[in-house]
Amino acid sequence: MRNRNMVGLGIFILLALVVRAQHAVHEHDVPAKSTPAETQTQQDLGAVTSAMSSHGHDHEHAMGPHMKMSALRDATPADTARAQQIVNTARKSLEKYKDVKTAEADGYKIFLPELKQKMYHFTNYGYAMEAGFRFNAEHPTSLLYEKTGNNDFKLIGAMYTAPARYGEDELDKRVPLSVAQWHQHVNLCKPPDSKRNEMFGKSPRFGLAGTISTQEECESAGGKFIPRIFGWMVHLYPYEQSLDAIWSVERQKNTADMSTMPQQQHHD
Q: How many structural domains are present in the chain?
């Protein structure tokens, strides 16, 4: 559906950290310090994110080959009731997070604060680890905010995650697939260092906004092909009215086009 677009800026680095959190073994449920290789991966994915934001593309037109979505199932009254219960729980538990300082005090950390975004993710890595084992509607992996001023944030929703190994039946147990679609990001061609700037052009070949979507074409171009990027995710916008709007992967663009982001911010 047209309004089921891809998640917002920065999600790719975010997912890297989330997956590490889900597999970390730490007495305080905090991910271990990144290794140099992991740091480079985060920087590479950050470049992909910046390239995507510079175009302002939506998923339907630019991301088709790079998005895997769960199949919509036939609606049932039981599914609708269960989805509504998740919404009701989220509305209640998220109420206190309308104050972003409360979210930060509870362990939610802003992701890429220096990058201008239409939607900011505040992530709790303890809850990310929990999501690797069970679903808790009261503990979303990330909170979603819009910036309303220099230092003001408006809560608009939440993001839940699930392990990449999950099949659709397991996803359905968390959130009914007749109501919502989970998604993964797939078929990434990471460019060689000498071609990283090509992600920032008007017609990129590399990255999740690029035209390359097969291993053969990627390797021919000197890139590294990554079949799947991390786990499943789904967005929830509990303050919307219809189920379609509440479970949209990303809200319709209702803020400034991200192509207005200063070019000097396009870096690693």
A: 1
